[in-house]
Amino acid sequence: MSTAPQRVVGLLMSDIAGSTRLYERLGDLPARRIVANQLRAMEHAVMRAGGRMVKSLGDGLLAVFAEARAALQAAAEIRDTAATPVSTAIHCGPVVEAPDGDVFGDSVNVVARLCAAARADEVLVSEALRDALLPEDAERLHPIPPLHVKGKRAPVRAFAWLHDADRGMLTAPTSQLDSVAAARQTASRLLLSCNGVTVEVREDRDATLGRDPANNLPIPSTRASRHHARVYFQGGHFFVEDQSSNGTWIEAEDLPPFRIHRDRAPLLGQGRILCGADPAKAVVPEVTFTRD
Predict the structure, then answer these.
(1) Percent of residues in the chain assigned helix, strand, coil, to nearest 5
(2) How far apart are CA 81 and CA 284, in angstroms?
(3) Is 252 within 8 Å of 177 (Cβ atoms)?
(4) 109: phi then psi, degrees, rounded to nearest 5
(5) What's the whole-number mean pLDDT along residues 84-93?
(6) What is the mean pLDDT of residues 110-130?
(7) What percent of the chain has pLDDT over 90?
(8) Domains along the chain?
């Protein structure tokens, strides 16, 4: 039995973020029209960049490209012109191409995992694709903390593709957060404390929060998710990234309390992180943070 040859390609996977909520909010027919229009626009972006559609994936798609830069071009157009938020990932690696045009292999698994990790309106780029880009394109990539990808023993290095307006600064949930964060001096470490336990976050050391005792800082509350949030250093600032079901509330100096859900926010000065419940409505263990 003959074996299909491998070839190296650029891979792009995009998924319409929040499509389930879209159906719940608008109803089946209106939401389906929006999703179908968005998928057509994504397919056109792939074709304009010289790519080939491999297949539709529910509310997303998989495409291949002969060149890494073409995959990046399509990903940027999809993100910048989307009528509804889209999560996108691009990777470069060997695939096996079936007679019907489908592609298989570890590279497909990697791009799928990166797409699942990407936030709405975010393009995540693998290290392999970054290495295949021209220097002027790679300059627009900002490293993010290594991702723990299912099926991979070692964390996967990835990069976020920045908008032109984002070069030299990272975006946060609100313009108010951006302006306050920009005025801060970078701290060397962040201290997190809960129930007498203190952990330290540095540029090379993240911390996880959640109900699971295996977290760096366990949260003894049923309102907290098992793996609720991650705190890390990036681009000169400390961030908390919510990964939970119920959301995370933050109280920080110079800002009113606010909630994030499947999003991130900078941790400014000192304050409190509350996992899973509004502190004005429920009593939950608090995580205090202090920049040192």
Answers:
(1) 25, 35, 40
(2) 41
(3) no
(4) -65, -40
(5) 91
(6) 88
(7) 40
(8) 6-166 (3.30.70.1230), 175-291 (2.60.200.20)
DSSP alpha helix (H) spans, 200-286: none
113 near 149, Cβ under 8 Å?
Answer: yes
B/e letters for 78-110, b = 16+ CB within 10 Å, e = fewer, are bbeebebbbbbbbbbbebebeeeeebeeebbbb
Tell me the C-alpha distance between 241 and 226, whole Å: 14
Residue 231 has pLDDT above 90, yes or no: yes
Are 233 and 242 spatial neighbours (Cβ–Cβ below 8 Å)? no
Cβ atoms of residues 271 and 251 within 8 Å:
yes
- Sequence-ordered strand ranges (E) for 116-261: 123-126, 141-147, 156-161, 190-194, 197-201, 207-210, 217-218, 229-234, 237-242, 248-252, 258-260
The DSSP symbol for 60 reads E
Element (H, E) at 272: strand 270-275
Q: Which residues pair with 17 in a beta bridge?
A: none
CA atoms 59, 62, 112, 263: torsion sign: negative
Q: For 97-112, how does the pLDDT look when each residue is reduced to its tens digit (9 = 90+)?
A: 999 999 999 999 999 9
pLDDT higher than threshold 80 for residue 168? no
Question: Which stretches within the chain are classed as H helix?
Answer: 19-26, 28-48, 68-81, 106-117, 127-131, 135-138, 175-183
Q: Which helix (H) or strand (E) is 265 found in, with range?
A: strand 264-266
Whole-prediction pTM value? 0.58
Cα separation of 95 and 104, whole Å? Answer: 6
- Between 237 and 14, the more confident residue is 14
d(CA 98, CA 256): 55
